[in-house]
Amino acid sequence: MDKNSKIYVAGHRGLVGSAIVKNLKDKGYKNIIGKTHAELDLTNQAEVRKFFKEEKPEYVFLAAAKVGGINANNTAPADFIYENLEIQNNVIKAAYDFKVTKLLFLGSSCIYPKLCPQPIKEEYLLSGYLESTNEAYALAKIAGLKMCQFFKKQYGANFISCMPTNLYGPNDNFDLNSSHVMPALIRKFHEAKVNKEPFVEVWGTGKPLREFLHVDDMADGCVFLMENYDGEEHVNIGTGKEVSIGELAKMIKEIVGYEGELKFNTEKPDGTPRKLLDVSKLKNLGWKHKIELKNGIISAYEWYVNNK
Ligand code: GFB
Asked: Which residue's CA is the closest to the ligand 1 atom numbered 25?
């Protein structure tokens, strides 16, 4: 990519897309384009093809997807499989037909098998059964990853993929029904503090382990891969460190300054017990995360307070 290359960030207003745009601008890239959902419906094949034909982007970050936390995934599987397949089929095929130089597709650590060995190496994909709470999303994302691989294999298209761990940061979704755990707990503890509530409900047992990456690091890793990686296999992006949901809740409680109790609601699902990425491949390529969890939560909380 050179600084004047035309770069399309699909999903430029979302958690990941907005961070990618910021990272690209900070690095001096000048020709970045994005379209809002109202301007371009990525599930509409004709609209997507018209956009690629007219705009002719040279590089594509495919950060648009239907995403959500454990409850959203578990209760709307039809929407998750359909919308994600539509978006990625349309964008990947249009990128090929309209001669995009390079495309980066985003998977997710939740698409590895539920019980695969830890830390999770890239090669463990498709080696076992999926986690049931996000099976629909996982099937769509696996198809996208494989589609990029197959376009590379059959046609030589430079379409690569990465596999991010659980992400958080500015522009996250703070809706308690559909969000991930980090924004949900930031909001719950903040509101409980303001309203002087006696306890905060934490879903599940608090025992599952999760790895969290700040989205600014994620964006930096994505741009790094776009600049430096052309391999067929996807690349894990994470910190290589994990924390239990119970420990995470205590950290957020402390950062927010809430003094009440935690109540674990075991009627709610735990999801996968553990999903820690092996990040040695990316490390060997020369990239490592910079933002540690505590500082990341402090800045995410600050963003929430200023933008809620
Ligand atoms: O972040 P989260 O929704 O997604 O939940 P997953 C992580 C863990 O936090 C689960 C617990 O064990 C939840 O039960 N948790 C505790 C909460 N309190 C809360 C809360 O108030 N809200 C939420 N949302 N969780 C998702 C996948 O799995 O991971 C997606 O479903 C996605 O497909 C994403 O890829 C990265 O880590 O379980």
From this structure: 181
